[in-house]
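Note to self: keep these together.
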Amino acid sequence: MAIQGPTRTLMSSACWRCQIQAERNVRRFASIQNKTQARRNSNYATPKQWLPYYPIETQKACWIQLKNRTLIRIGGPDATDFLHNLIPAPVLPLDDKTHIIFSAFLNAKGRIIHDVFVYKPAKDGANEWLLDVDTNSAPAVVSHLKKHKLRSKFKLEKLSPEEAAVMYVWPRADQGEMKLSPNMLLDPRPGMGMRVYTTAVDETRKTFTTNDSAQELKWEDYMIHRMLNGLAEGPVEIASGSALPQESNIDFCGGIDFHKGCYLGQELTIRTHHTGIVRKRILPVQIYTDDDPISHDQTAPIYNPSLSLPQPPNEANISKCGAKGRSGRSTGKWLGGYGNIGLALCRLETMTDLSLTAEGSQYNPETDEFEVSWDAGQGENDAEGQSKKTSVKVKAFVPPWLRQGIENTIKARNDRSQARRRQAEEDEEDEVD
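Structure:
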């Protein structure tokens, strides 16, 4: 005898409700697996769409060893599930074109504690991963992983600089995805080039150095390249314990999946996405003075190596010039820079022309100027006995990839609101009928 369930005939020895729910879960999981990669890139610009800043005039590809990054190996039967439940990005599926994930480890309150690149190096089925983290944060990352390991079966190992290294390569536009190493993979962040992980450091450096089509650059070139694209990295620019993943633009780098299962810090991240508005984001900025003003027609920061300007301290407040009282409250925070460019956490509707709500932007590019000021130093006072202040003016810019991502996010939020209103109207009509 069989019992007729809501959708199909099942054996009487089983609960048809449980079987139907299980089958629905299987179909839902398969659908999520198939759509994860499409969803990761559907609303956001992919790195190939934006031409990265090229640091110097040369006919060769540029490369640099990132000595500020350390690799951590994690391998074992439970390694994949462990990572999938700890970071907001989907670990699987990882196809041939997406071997790197840029995401972050969050605390229980949804704040970033460490940014991380996740590599899937093994192609032989081995359940092994490499984590690319800031060198100064590596011991803390290991402690964080061990704290949540519990009974998971995997091995954890921090690799020394002699054992493994991370390199970065950005080819010229006409060279495409030039392969100097089999482990050269596309950086998932917009406007960036290729990342290379290697466990044969000396051999890889020798290959790069002796290659006539590649040129080694300085650390400053990589910083300038990254900051002009508006991308923060490391605990100094992404403040550990206080930065939010959306404010750090990790959502536009494919580092958050708003449809995946539970992970540490999920509650605030999902609530911000569905019910809140991200009013602050990290933007590229340019500092200047009255003696060397900035052009109102300028659409992107311009690095000028000849300028020698004082660098504001990390997390110094940015405020509107001439504003006092409540109108003089902080409009952003300086995160770090080099020369006359840098990164800052900015209020979008105050420092840019972006409109996040119906109220619109309050920014007037012709009249509004912003500055960051800080104490000159101990023992230095002005004529009135007050501590001397040093200040520079700051102008924020919105990269094309970030503008497109914000516009797509606003459109998706409006579409969800309209869908909810239509559903509410239909429910009211059904109740009347």
